[in-house]
Design goal:
Chain lengths: 102, 333
Amino acid sequence: MYKVAVVGDKDSILGFKALGIDAFPVVDKDEARRTVDSLARENYGIIFITEQTASLIPDTIERYNNQMLPAVILIPSNQGTLNIGMDMINKNIEKAVGINIL
Amino acid sequence: MDRMDYVQSVTRTRVLETRLLSRARIERMVDAKDMEEVFKILGETEYSNVMAGINRAEDYEKILSSELKRVYELMYEMSKDKIVVDLMALKYDYHNLKVLVKEKILNQDFSDMYTPISTTDFNQLKVNYLSGNLKEIEPRFREALEAVEKDYDENQDPQRIDILLDRFYFNHLYDLALETDIPLFKKYVKDLIDFTNIKTLIRVKKQKKDMKFLEEVLIQNGNISKEELVLSLNDPIEVITHKYRNYDISPEMKKGLEIYQNTGRLSELEKLMDNYLMELNKPSKYIHFGPEPLFSYIVAKETEIKVLRIIMVSKINRLSPEEIRERLRDLYV
């Protein structure tokens, strides 16, 4: 079975633990990249990552977007949203359906 | 307990008290523009010793826990009777016991969740427990561990581990306070139990659990009797505040519950509770012979660390100074 992880700043993601999702607090760019890469190797099927953290490592996110697994999904942090996650969903829909139906 | 045993340690405590953070310093931290500035201000205080080697703002927790550990070590060294410090340190024992039991049941390693503060040699206790050598463990902890294990075998409910251990904790704490026979300690513990029970009552009400559950989670030995509180489960908040209007904690309880009604948040009641317990300790400043000043110093230090944690977490999450101020606790000095 694949596992689910969440990556981001500690105060935003700790609550996910209560749902049984593994939480991985990170602080800076390098730590974020290392964590996402190692999670991808460790049989995680879905990796939630806060937009704030994701914006530090766009290349890494892009790399996993081109792969089947893991699915890297952006979520807003407690600082609010940067709209990167929603933009990505819109883009994917355009790719799949041809037009933006949202 | 001989009050004259404390002549020297009270004098030492007085010196330590002067190093507590002042209101002005706390205000400066609240208004600081980022964590770097908070660290800079903290570096001017007695925290500078434990700040060595910490560079990242997110590692603030390490600073706070090493400072807390330092305080407890110092106070154990200074106090003639261990029990004065035990009163405050006991909660960490029971925290560790919770971790220990869960570690054993899940067969996982939670070593980073233990606190280094303890009234006893916790590593030894852990070894004894894991090797099944329960005879060597202090009777009170052994009793608690055995009861919790038995209950888990029967019910398989992890929540009950916490409920039971919390109950054992408060009973143990109450007995310690009685043993000291110091009015302040007894009052502190009794009022703490009252506050805890009121908070429990409100939470159980909100979760719409039944009376049987409430009876399980309420603590004995408070000023407000447990039997009476159980019956309040279905009372509206106004009736609760009216029914319990003649206790020492009543003004804070009334105010806290009013705010709870308006906002749905219990955090204000918790803040008022901390302020009340701090206020209770303030007369210790004028006691020169006795263990009270040492105890109050620990309370003051724990409050200070809590205040610092609030400031730092708020700074990392970019809360405004006004929002931080709302959450701050009163200080000892």
